[in-house]
Design brief:
Helix content: 25-40%
Number of helices: 10
Number of strands: 15
Largest sheet: 6 strands, antiparallel
CATH class of the domain at 128-301: Mainly Alpha
Radius of gyration: 22 Å
Distance between the termini: 17 Å
Strand content: 15-25%
Structural class: alpha/beta
CATH topology of the domain at 128-301: Glutathione S-transferase Yfyf (Class Pi), Chain A, domain 2
Shape: globular
Length: 367
């Protein structure tokens, strides 16, 4: 599944625009503030129904406009598909796949997988553990779609147990039923924890390889830190019971996969705490490239890579390496202020888009 084109209406700085992507590398170039990042954001929004840059979706609507709409045309061999997202502040989003309304684009089978690198994405390394847990869960769903239901099941049972704890603490409920919820929580918790551990195991080797190739000094690795070490459901229930007094005092569950952590380490030290911004950027890029490798191997589907301002902080050798990696298969879109920063940007077979404020010019479309 590849993206053929994206149409924008009243999105960020664009009143109307349309861009066609190549089957391999597409380079989006233009001066700072021209709208390169906005174009990549629109691609992500049109394929997922959400933004990789902001949680306030009002920001997506062009100033002075009432609503925004993004349409993404897709191709799977000779089959054509379309995803559409419309948003008006204060109203539910209108999302559709091939003209049929859907609640979540993430559940659409024809949707392309995506991986995005934007400066704001450093939150994945620097932000709260919940950001990394959510990212792991998204990757689990991408590698093993059927397992996505286990995270939802855990969240539902956890909410029920927390409601009961709050009721007991307030004197409105009895402790008699807490064991029932503990057993339900245990099954979902063990599955969710093991899914996360499994996907980290798949990522570990390619992540270490990519960090070495990108020139991140030292030995880098991923360290999954589950809150529970229980070997089975009975042991997990015992862990919950040992913490029941504390849970009742606080009014919520303090133990389980909702407290798991993923650490990115370099020579045994967390890059989140001890890495420079440049080192953190390299680690994030390595992780996204590792995910690309895993998805291509496990699903036979290489995700569309959206890379914003990734080349400016790499030396010429690392740029060449990244360009070769992206040329090995699948689609990639790189935004840059300088075409000279992207090796092979002027070669035949590379699609180039020149962006100026509010407009996209198709300079070259690969055959």
């Amino acid at each position: 599944m590849r993206v053929v084109s994206v149409q924008l209406r009243d999105f960020r700085t664009y009143a109307r625009a349309e861009a066609y992507l190549g089957e391999g590398l597409t380079v989006v170039h233009g001066p700072n503030g021209a709208g390169k990042s906005n174009l990549l954001e629109a691609l992500y929004f049109g394929c997922t129904g959400r933004s990789p840059r902001t949680r306030n979706e009002r920001e997506l609507v062009r100033f002075g406009a009432q609503a925004t709409r993004v349409v993404v045309a897709l191709a799977d061999g000779t089959d054509a598909h379309e995803l559409s997202v419309g948003f008006e502040p204060g109203q539910p989003k209108h999302m559709s796949a091939d003209g049929a309304p859907v609640e979540r684009l993430l559940d659409v089978e024809t949707r392309p997988l995506l991986s995005v690198f934007v400066p704001d994405r450093l939150e994945l390394l620097k932000g709260a553990p919940s950001v990394r847990r959510a990212h792991l869960d998204q990757l689990v769903a991408a590698v093993w779609p059927a397992r996505a239901a286990d995270r939802l099941a855990y969240s539902r049972v956890l909410a029920q147990r927390n409601a009961l704890l709050g009721g007991i603490r307030a004197g409105r409920a009895s402790r008699a039923t807490i064991s029932t919820w503990d057993r339900q929580l245990a099954g979902a918790a063990i599955r969710l924890r093991d899914h996360r551990a499994g996907v980290v195991s798949l990522l570990a080797e390619p992540f270490s390889e990519r960090t070495r190739e990108l020139g991140l000094a030292g030995e880098s690795n991923l360290d999954f830190r589950p809150r529970s070490r229980a070997g089975d459901e009975e042991e997990f229930v015992a862990e919950l019971q040992a913490r029941l007094a504390s849970d009742l005092e606080r009014g919520f569950s303090t133990h389980g996969p909702h407290r798991d952590e993923l650490a990115l380490l370099r020579d045994g030290r967390e890059l989140r705490l001890y890495g420079s911004q440049g080192e953190q950027r390299l680690a994030l890029l390595a992780m996204l490239l590792a995910e690309r490798t895993v998805l291509a191997r496990e699903r036979g589907r290489t995700p569309l890579m959206l890379l914003d301002d990734v080349m400016s902080e790499l030396d010429s050798e690392r740029r060449e390496l990244l360009a070769r990696e992206l040329s090995s298969g699948g689609q990639s879109v790189i935004a840059t202020t300088d075409l000279g920063h992207v090796p092979g940007a002027g070669a035949a077979g590379v699609t180039r888009l020149r962006v100026s404020p509010g407009a996209v010019l198709q300079e070259a479309l690969a055959a």
